[in-house]
Design brief:
4 domains, alpha+beta, globular, 4-stranded antiparallel β-sheet, 18 strands, 744 residues, Serine Threonine Protein Phosphatase 5, Tetratricopeptide repeat
């Protein structure tokens, strides 16, 4: 129960209500809500939540099915009607044109997508969508979600493939109380929902107890109203202007409604789903693993890059830290902003301070004068869907220039030279307005293994930075094993932030287990699931015979929790691979091999499955391992497969063939420091000068890679050049050092 009052209220309900209330609350549907909540229901109708998913019909389908065609890369798809059925003739999984009936539609604006039922309960989303914007904006047309890519049948991005599968990729966020119900043995789905769209109970939780409460006499109603989550505070923040700072602050104290934000985060985040048991009011991280500021998803400074759905961006903001919630800006029922344009910002930020050329230094009513354009720059996803960055950052063109990434100023002033905007900002504002997000150089340095990466990482941890940025850098400490980084990683296990604790477990996995096992073992009892199962993953291979009985019970219990999260995602090759690795660690080799095979059945192009399955077979069936790698290369000429093949040859004593394969891997992926390093080591005995050349080239983009630095020191020492050997050895040692006094 959430509080004393929740418990007290429930006891009162049980005292006066029917016996049926003793059961878990049930979903009752939006029709049961609207009689008492007429205004909220009317606002919700026609919203993007209401129209998140619909049965295909004359009223729901927006696209032109009047025998229209769309052609791309030699494939012409035709959209037409067969009586009351909406149909498409397009390329199927076998590469041949086939007729398919549209069963459901997704969304309404700025695009609408279409879904087709397949055997075994699978539902797939077409890669061609309808642009529902007005004609003047370029809409009212069919378009491809992948306009610049030829995607053949069999590809993971083909509309019949796993990445456009509704059951796994989309369903959880477009319907209410969805249960995926995947059967791994039959590879089939029996996906069910309470309501087809995002309805009242998707946010407020199952309402059967609330309905029962509403029917009690007024004098019999307990304090608790029977809802599983209380969102009455949503939108009730009272903001005022501090007369001294002239900046907004909460008048009613720091009242950030975390329950509201976590309810929204369920769908408005880039995350992995651990189960489908989330009920509003639960801890989000007991059911979902949110992405942090991962390379590829975000630029190093935290600005949006890939499709990330707002949540982690918002966590970066000073507004989140100050207590702003989603409903301060958005009506939770209509989903509209509470005001148009910059008026939404002026709810809290004085126009006299900010809506002036003295602040923005642009012409009034221009793009550059817009709060949203400068502090929430947008990026277009899915071809037509423009989404604003919710990190609410001060533009930093100097950081953009330094890290070679986009920034709000350069987005508009594309005709200007690099550094122009940074100079202008310096002139206007001086050096003081550097913003809240100061972690970009550290993340970039970690990604590039820069020589200053560790120093910059500690600067993030010691500075005033968003907690999500601190959590992101923590896991990298395991790549710099020292007494100092071990101490820091251990300290971070005491953080109040679950993401930080999980990342600390990942960091500790980079140290010898004898130094970390006690701390990681304690994380098996963490109150949040994402931390517990990460600890179980790290500790899975520990021999159970070495543990006390109660320790064994605990490890087995949490390992099973981890296994269940993988089984939930058993329709994905990544989960099957993780299951295979878990079973191998547990000594359950038959189950491991079955999971490896399932991973490849689900996605024959999935390179990590070939490599890890081959490693699993190493020593017991080398011929099968070799055959696996060859099979993978027939499907995809991938650098990692060549690298694995090279190592296989080396193990077999076929050094020349091994070197050739390792060379191919290094050439295919020159940015990989590991591939360059291993290739250089392989040729170092016969070609030490060439090995040095390769390593020095790799060092240009990985200046702080300890392996490369130590290898260069070793090879120069072998060649008798002690001075150069000393230089590289000192550089390697410097990379691992931290400034005295930091986080002691």
């Amino acid at each position: 129960m959430k509080s004393y009052y929740r418990l007290f209220g429930l006891l009162c309900i049980l005292a006066f209500a029917p016996a049926s209330l003793i059961a878990e609350p049930q979903y009752v549907g939006e029709q049961a809500c609207k009689d008492c909540h007429i205004s909220e229901h009317q606002q919700w109708q026609g919203s993007h939540h209401d129209l998140a998913m619909q049965v295909a019909s004359e009223t729901s389908v927006l696209g032109d099915f009047n025998n229209t065609s769309f052609s791309q890369f030699g494939v012409t798809s035709r959209f037409y009607k067969d009586g009351n059925r909406f149909m498409v003739n397009t390329e199927g999984a076998d590469g041949k044109l086939q007729n398919y009936e549209i069963s459901y539609v997704f969304g309404v604006y700025p695009l609408q997508q279409y879904m087709v039922k397949f055997p075994q309960g699978k539902i797939q989303v077409l890669g061609i969508a309808w642009d529902s914007r007005e004609t003047l904006k370029g809409g009212q047309r069919w378009f491809s979600l992948y306009p610049n890519e030829s995607i053949p049948a069999g590809d993971v991005l083909h509309w019949t493939g796993p990445n456009l599968n509704w059951n796994y990729m989309c369903a959880d966020c477009h319907s209410t109380n969805l249960k995926k119900n995947y059967n791994a043995e039959s590879r089939s789905y029996n996906t069910q929902w309470s309501e087809i769209n995002v309805s009242c109970e998707a946010c407020h939780g199952p309402a059967s107890d609330h309905i029962a409460w509403s029917k009690l006499p007024a004098d019999k109603k307990p304090l608790d109203n029977g809802l599983v989550v209380h969102l009455t505070k949503a939108g009730s923040n009272q903001w005022r202007i501090n007369p001294k700072t002239r900046k907004p602050e909460l008048a009613n104290g720091s009242n950030a409604n975390q329950e509201e934000i976590q309810v929204c985060a369920k769908c408005h985040s880039r995350r992995a789903q651990l189960d489908d048991d989330f009920t509003p009011g639960d801890n989000f991280r007991d059911h979902y693993l949110p992405a942090l500021l991962t390379e590829g998803l975000y630029h190093p400074d935290g600005k949006i890059n890939d499709e990330v759905f707002v949540y982690a961006s918002f966590l970066q903001s000073r507004m989140y830290a100050a207590g702003v919630t989603c409903s301060d800006c958005h009506n939770p029922h209509t989903l509209d902003r509470k005001a148009e344009g910059d008026a939404i910002c002026q709810q809290c930020h004085l126009p006299t301070n900010y809506a002036s050329p003295k602040h923005h230094f642009h012409q009034q009513n221009s793009t550059g004068a817009s709060c949203i354009s400068c502090h929430m720059p947008a990026k277009t996803y899915m071809g037509v869907d423009e989404r604003n960055d919710h990190s609410f950052r001060i533009p930093r063109p100097d950081i953009g220039e330094q890290l070679k990434i986009p920034d709000a100023c350069s987005n508009c002033h594309q005709d200007k030279t690099a550094g122009w905007a940074a100079t202008a900002m310096q002139k206007w504002y001086g050096p003081s307005d550097t913003g809240y997000q100061q972690f970009g150089p550290a993340l970039k340095a970690l990604q590039q293994q820069d020589v200053n990466a560790l120093q910059l990482t500690y600067a993030v941890l010691m500075g005033e930075n968003p907690q999500i940025a601190k959590a992101t850098v923590i896991s990298h400490l395991g790549a710099f094993p020292s007494r100092q980084t071990l101490l820091t990683s251990t300290q971070m296990l005491r953080s109040s932030d679950a993401d930080t604790r999980r990342q600390a477990v990942i960091a500790l996995a980079g140290f010898p287990l004898q130094h970390t096992i006690r701390e990681i073992f304690a994380s098996l009892e963490d109150p949040v699931k994402i931390v517990r199962i990460e600890a179980a993953r790290v500790l899975a291979a520990i021999p159970r015979g070495s543990l006390e009985p109660e320790q064994k019970l605990l490890l087995d219990k949490v390992t099973e929790q981890y296994r269940q999260t993988l089984l939930f995602a058993a329709d994905r090759p990544e989960a099957q691979l993780a299951l295979a690795q878990l079973y191998a660690q547990l000594g359950q080799n038959e189950k491991a091999e079955a999971a490896f095979k399932r991973a490849l059945q689900l996605q024959p192009q999935y390179v990590p499955a070939y490599i890890n399955y081959a490693n699993f077979l190493q020593g017991s069936n080398e011929a099968a391992a070799f055959s696996l790698l060859q099979d993978g290369l027939k499907i995809r000429k991938d650098a990692a497969l060549y690298h694995a093949l090279g190592l296989w040859y080396v193990r077999q004593g076929e050094l020349d063939k091994g070197i050739e394969a390792l060379k191919t891997a290094a050439q295919l992926q020159p940015e990989s420091a590991n591939f360059q390093y291993v290739y250089a080591v392989a040729i170092s005995e016969k070609q030490p000068q060439q090995a040095i050349k390769i390593l020095k080239t790799a060092l240009k983009s990985n200046s702080g890679n300890p392996q490369i630095l130590m290898a260069l020191a070793s090879y120069y020492q072998q060649l008798g050049d002690g001075d150069k050997a000393k230089v590289y050895r000192q550089k390697a040692e410097a990379v691992m050092q931290v400034q005295p006094g930091i986080l002691r």
